[in-house]
């Protein structure tokens, strides 16, 4: 195997495992070549291979890992947007995958994974204490992504990361809206702490049960928010009805 091929394979593995993430910019060509112990021409050859596969994009500004799932996620976002069935189907899928991923994380997480999970739990506590719904929602997202990484299943990692990006764009439901719901924030924090602590203790059954219950609670709360919004809209239409009637 040529050196350039080996370098390309090394970087591709890092992208596959989620070590280098879509949208992240690699260090400069000179620094990257030095860190990998290869010449700059060899590095350029390796990057060219990855660019041909659509995994990186190189320009004068540098090399960036592409959002390679966008050709799939963009049409799905348009397809899912506005369909009332999508949120329920999404949660049904999450109940299955999330529970299994948490169970895998409980038995597969490395010390590095455990440290990241612990860091995410601390971020959730801090955001909760600061009464910052935006920060807490972001910490929520980060915890789930770290758990997917700790599951060490690359299919789960990339598919769930794609769904996470779609959720961040308002597909399925609005996470921050969930956190602004009276009484919900405390329950979500408790659920996240339970999931994290179960994984850290290595208890697969407890992790799976905690994840399932968390997704079930989130689904029911989102459904309640939707019903409340529909009732409010109906009430507002009653107020506006006079504008549509003749005197």
Verbal overview:
By secondary structure, the chain is mainly alpha-helical. It is 74% helix and 3% strand. The protein has eleven helices and two strands; from the N terminus they run H-H-H-E-E-H-H-H-H-H-H-H-H. The protein has helices spanning 3-16, 29-36, 40-52, 70-80, 84-108, 111-129, 133-151, 154-168, 175-179, 184-200, 204-240, and strands spanning 56-59, 62-65. Strands 1-2 form a two-stranded antiparallel sheet. A hairpin with a 2-residue loop joins strand 1 and strand 2 (62-65). Helix 5 crosses helix 7 and helix 6 (111-129) runs antiparallel to helix 10. The longest helix is centred in the C-terminal third of the chain and has 37 residues, at 204-240. The radius of gyration is 22 Å and the shape is globular. The termini are far apart.
- How confident is the prediction overall: mean pLDDT? 90
Largest sheet: 2 strands, antiparallel
**Which range does the strand content fall in?**
under 5%
Give the proportion of residues in helices. over 70%
Shape: globular
Number of β-strand runs: 2
The Rg value, from CA coordinates, equals 22 Å
Walk across the major sheet and give the strand order. 1-2
Helix-strand string: HHHEEHHHHHHHH
Q: Structural class given helices, strands, pairing?
A: mainly alpha
Low-confidence stretches: none
């Amino acid at each position: 195997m040529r050196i350039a091929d080996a370098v390309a394979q090394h970087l591709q593995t890092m992208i596959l495992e989620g070590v280098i993430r879509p949208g992240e910019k690699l260090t400069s060509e000179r620094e990257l070549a030095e860190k990998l112990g290869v010449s700059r021409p060899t590095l350029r050859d390796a990057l060219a291979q990855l660019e041909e596969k659509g995994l990186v994009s190189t320009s004068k500004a540098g090399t960036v890992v592409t959002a390679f799932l966008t050709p799939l996620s963009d049409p799905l976002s348009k397809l899912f947007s506005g369909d009332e069935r999508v949120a329920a189907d999404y949660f049904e899928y999450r109940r299955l995958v999330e529970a299994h991923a948490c169970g895998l994380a409980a038995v597969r997480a490395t010390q590095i994974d455990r440290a990241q999970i612990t860091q995410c739990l601390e971020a959730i506590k801090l955001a909760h204490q600061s009464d910052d719904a935006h920060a807490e929602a972001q910490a929520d997202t980060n915890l789930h992504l770290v758990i997917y990484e700790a599951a060490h299943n690359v299919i789960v990692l990339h598919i769930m990361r794609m769904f996470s990006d779609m959720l961040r764009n308002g597909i399925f439901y609005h996470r921050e809206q969930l956190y602004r719901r009276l009484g919900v924030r405390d329950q979500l924090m408790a659920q996240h702490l339970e999931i994290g602590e179960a994984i850290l203790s290595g208890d697969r059954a407890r992790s799976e049960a905690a994840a399932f219950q968390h997704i079930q609670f989130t689904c029911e709360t989102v459904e309640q928010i939707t019903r409340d919004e529909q009732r409010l809209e109906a009430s507002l239409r009653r107020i506006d009805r006079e504008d549509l009637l003749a005197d």
